[in-house]
Amino acid sequence: MKQSQLFSHTLKEIPRDEVSFNAQLLLKGGFIYKEMAGVYDYLPLGLIVLDNINNIIRSEMNAIGGQEMFLTVLQNPEVWKKSKRWEDKSVDIWFKTKLKNNNELGMGFTHEEPLTVLMKNYIHSYKDLPKFPYQIQTKFRNEIRARSGIMRCREFLMKDLYSFCANQEEHEKFYEIIKKAYYNIFKRCGLGDITYLTFASGGVFSKYSHEFQTLTAFGEDIIYVDKKKKIAVNKEVYNDEVLKNLGLDKNDLIEERAVEVGNIFTLGTKFSQALDLKYTDEKGKSQDVFMGSYGIGPGRVMGTIVETSHDEKGIIWPDAVAPYKVHLLDLRRNQDDRFYSILQKNKIRVIYDDREINAGVKFNDADLMGMPYRLVLSDKLKNKVELKRRDSKDISLYSEKEVVEILKGNYK
Amino acid sequence: MKQSQLFSHTLKEIPRDEVSFNAQLLLKGGFIYKEMAGVYDYLPLGLIVLDNINNIIRSEMNAIGGQEMFLTVLQNPEVWKKSKRWEDKSVDIWFKTKLKNNNELGMGFTHEEPLTVLMKNYIHSYKDLPKFPYQIQTKFRNEIRARSGIMRCREFLMKDLYSFCANQEEHEKFYEIIKKAYYNIFKRCGLGDITYLTFASGGVFSKYSHEFQTLTAFGEDIIYVDKKKKIAVNKEVYNDEVLKNLGLDKNDLIEERAVEVGNIFTLGTKFSQALDLKYTDEKGKSQDVFMGSYGIGPGRVMGTIVETSHDEKGIIWPDAVAPYKVHLLDLRRNQDDRFYSILQKNKIRVIYDDREINAGVKFNDADLMGMPYRLVLSDKLKNKVELKRRDSKDISLYSEKEVVEILKGNYK
């Protein structure tokens, strides 16, 4: 991408009410645009980051048997009344709207109910189980306050997978499998070292649910972390009995602020009973399907990456989610596309700052926008290229050939 | 994909109120699921078709300088009041909702207004023009009747590109370019031969807008087609003056039913004036930005393909949009994955019917689901594979090697 062609660009002025680093940096860097509190558009570079995260999530979900589908925003109240989640007194974050005939509709904040009804068409026998449909789809939640940038939105993308198993045993097997897939996702997104499996309150069918919490000063949650054992306990269930239960010692735990980047939850037969999703087992007996739900907010992951990976100059994107791997700054009096074309031919994802503006602006924008590698072409450097990683202070000079080999990971 | 693993499957019973072929066949084939009138979920196979169409659209939009972004559903009324499109008396298809503080929000039925406001951050000088942002995003329209399956939905995906040009001349240049891109899209989706550029009513800034209308008995529109000249006139502007204007002869025109699969529209300065989007020209003078909008509904394209490409047995997907190129039916007593793996290794998109059910069901499902090629493995055929195109009656026997070469397009 030539930067001169990009319709979005960095901004100096952003809305004054933004208090979070993620929103400040993403707005300034030209990744997102604010429509209103908790409602953000994704500009071209932001959309690439979001798609990169989505594709990491997709590949991990597909690898464990997930099947992608796409459910609707508009929700039929009749379905939600059966599970007692329609009334505002039981769920206080609904956005609701109306058809022309004045019938109320909901805007989905999650999808257990409609999916359970849908699956009644496809689950009849034990042979139809287990199944793991998922989607990456927009959810709506009528939050009273939405002041955390893209971390807590009124409208946001969510990956939600639902498991449909024959019984608790089959469920627990899958639960361990998706736990590992979640670890993989956060690791691939560059959050592996600071993300902890965290015990949180469960439901009727399991003592705990599990959250994936990433340490950050901006987090809304308090967790107690055992860094050796790589697990944590959410403040909501932090007490002596739970610690004993989990074999944790108070003295090994550190209180930390963290943000929930994912959660996995045993639903049991709560929804299958309410909405009558049954199957016939091997002995011909009718049984309730045993369910679980597993969420990740790709936008929240993106915000968390920015919260935990930036400096005073701007964002530091990890390679796997960066919109481009390389930011090529051309400071020469006579700019040309030659080296940019070479990088493209070598399939290196590159944004080329070909704008006719002064070098200081180019350097500042590159730091703010945060691509993992910065390359500089300058008349002073003769035929060498200056290479700097965004997360390092070291600057080195290489030949064009060497730079290509480094970026392709072939350089020794 | 192994068909035994797929959570969705073909259905015999579908909602009785479905009158359209597209909804009937897509519901029976396991591509979509109906939440309510005009509101459909996409099941795994349906989502692949939709993604294939989206990716064709994306590649054509990117090729002409389109830049993908993603705007929000939730809409701030203040923006729409300025263009006089907030009140229900001016726009009668709004879905509206409310924040906790009772402030009303809209659910976007299109995005001229918010995007025009957004672009005020990025367009200042003539050097910032032209720009062509687009998105593939969910729209909401409160239709009184929604009885055309996925052709006219209350919630539906839309590709909307908006052009921002310095003046009418620059706009008209792009208008011709995107016209060609639209032809390419419909051609690649298999609708090229029956889709006509159709003159429809314009606005203040141009005499006509242009629709792309696909001939189908189920279409909501009446158009008059000149098949030689490959253009048509919408009934809404069909009169002697217009025909004279366009150099068309009444005797060359045939009245046809058609469905609008895309439209391109000159907006002029209507929205830039209302929302104050200006730029400074070469002479330092402030000018209104000249706009256009260009829509395609990927779901409607999918429905139109089904309407125009099916027989009494089911759907006939064109190769480019089919969920899989090949449907491999295994009728052998002892099924095994060997040939399925060979096809996969050759990167042929294949769905493998490995279910332990009778051959008749497999044949019927294959016809209903409509993959372009059907392959049969059977003990009767010894080491040969039976190949049949979905759109042909010819059945031939080939060796496994020959089949692979045919599917890879190498067979002479």
* Structural domain tally of chain A: 2
Give the chain pair forming the largest contact, with residue counts: A-B, 51 and 51 residues
Find the CATH superfamily of the largest domain in chain A: Bira Bifunctional Protein, Domain 2
Number of helices of chain A: 11
Distance between termini of chain A? Answer: 28 Å
How would you write the strand order of the largest sheet of chain A? 9-10-13-11-12
What helical percentage do the residues of chain A reach?
Answer: 25-40%
Q: Which spans of chain A have pLDDT < 50 for at least 5 consecutive residues?
A: none
CATH class wording of the largest domain in chain A: Alpha Beta
CATH architecture of the largest domain in chain A: 2-Layer Sandwich
Chart the SSEs and their pairings:
Two copies of one chain form a homodimer.
Chain A lengths: L20 H8 L3 E5 L2 E4 L1 H20 L3 E2 L5 E2 L1 H6 L12 E4 L5 E4 L4 H8 L13 E8 L14 E11 L2 H21 L6 E9 L2 E10 L5 E6 L4 E4 L5 H7 L6 E16 L1 H6 L2 E3 L5 E3 L1 E7 L1 H11 L1 E2 L2 E2 L10 E5 L7 H8 L4 E4 L5 H11 L3 E5 L7 E5 L5 E4 L1 H8 L5
Parallel strand pairs in A: 3-7, 9-12, 19-20, 19-21
Antiparallel strand pairs in A: 1-2, 4-6, 5-6, 7-8, 8-16, 9-10, 10-13, 11-12, 11-13, 13-16, 14-15, 17-18, 21-22, 22-23
Helix pairs in contact in A: 1-8, 2-5, 2-8
Question: What would you say this structure looks like, in words?
Answer:
The structure is a homodimer of 412-residue chains. The first copy, chain A, is of the alpha+beta class. The first copy, chain A, folds into 2 domains: 21-311, BirA Bifunctional Protein, domain 2 (2-Layer Sandwich); 324-407, Anticodon-binding domain (Rossmann fold). Helices cover 28% and strands 30% of the residues of chain A. Chain A has 11 helices and 23 strands. The first copy, chain A, has helices at residues 21-28, 44-63, 77-82, 112-119, 168-188, 240-246, 270-275, 298-308, 338-345, 359-369, 400-407; strands at residues 32-36, 39-42, 67-68, 74-75, 95-98, 104-107, 133-140, 155-165, 195-203, 206-215, 221-226, 231-234, 253-268, 278-280, 286-288, 290-296, 310-311, 314-315, 326-330, 350-353, 373-377, 385-389, 395-398. Chain A has a 5-stranded mixed barrel. Chain A has a 5-stranded mixed β-sheet with strand order 20-19-21-22-23, sandwiched between helices. Chain A is elongated. The two termini of chain A are 28 Å apart. In chain A, 48% of the residues are buried. The mean pLDDT of chain A is 96. At the A-B interface, strand 1, strand 2, helix 2, strand 3 and strand 4 of A face strand 1, strand 2, helix 2, strand 3 and strand 4 of B.
